[in-house]
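Hi support team,

I'm filing this because I wasn't sure whether my run with protoporphyrin IX containing FE finished correctly. The job status page said complete, but I'd like someone to confirm that the output block is well-formed before I use it downstream. Pasting the exact inputs I used:
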Amino acid sequence: MSDTEDGRIERYPPALRLLHWVRALLVLGLIAAGWTMTRMSDAQVARYGDLYPWHKSFGLLVLMIVLVQLAIRARARLPEPPAALPRHEAMLSRVVHRTMYALLVVVPVMGYSMSSTYTHSDGVPFFGLPVPELLPKNDHWFAVFQWLHRVLAYTLLGLVALHVGGALKHRFLDRDRRADVLPRMW
Ligand code: HEM
Ligand code: HEM
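And here is everything the job wrote out:
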């Protein structure tokens, strides 16, 4: 189905639009929670220790949402980059989208791998259901996965900032109104 008479698609499919905003909220919440929980004192951990299982559960939920998005994306007709966008900006946005998708898969997988290899792990719950920890316990690999989870999560945050900055620039600074991409995702 197309949005215009000449067959061009003007907006993302409704399922991708809905999942984009749900996932955006979840990812920003996860980064805020991750940052907070890793800076808590022992007394705060005792009090707000539930942040860990919630972080793991919502992190796995994001992984599932992203896999669903990629499956929908593979079948759907998606809008072309707006013709009003200079080539280098269209290319930059494509690279940023692809890198964000890659990180949205790798970051939760690193989180799971970290918890799974951690010798003193409390387990990986998915909203109360125990998820099997498939990797062997190993302190060295735990440290590697922990480092990757942290560095890649903050790299994702940097890309999200660039992404949001780009969307706002197209809406508010670009003279050509056809460069505004927000209605395509709204
Ligand atoms: C954690 C936060 C976010 C993540 C991870 C994220 C990720 C993405 C990804 C991967 C795409 C590509 C969609 C596809 O081709 O399937 C996309 C598109 C888009 N996002 Fe975000 N996004 C986030 C937050 C936001 C916010 C806050 C805004 C608004 C200011 C926004 C505006 C858009 C727009 C307008 C598009 C469509 C771009 C186009 O038409 O080419 N995103 N986003
Ligand atoms: C998109 C999904 C996820 C994002 C964006 C994310 C983000 C983060 C961030 C920013 C931190 C703080 C890192 C630091 O400052 O040291 C963190 C910590 C943590 N995350 Fe995630 N996370 C995600 C998914 C997961 C998953 C699926 C799990 C496990 C199943 C997980 C387990 C953990 C654990 C255990 C910590 C604490 C690490 C420590 O104590 O050093 N995360 N996460």
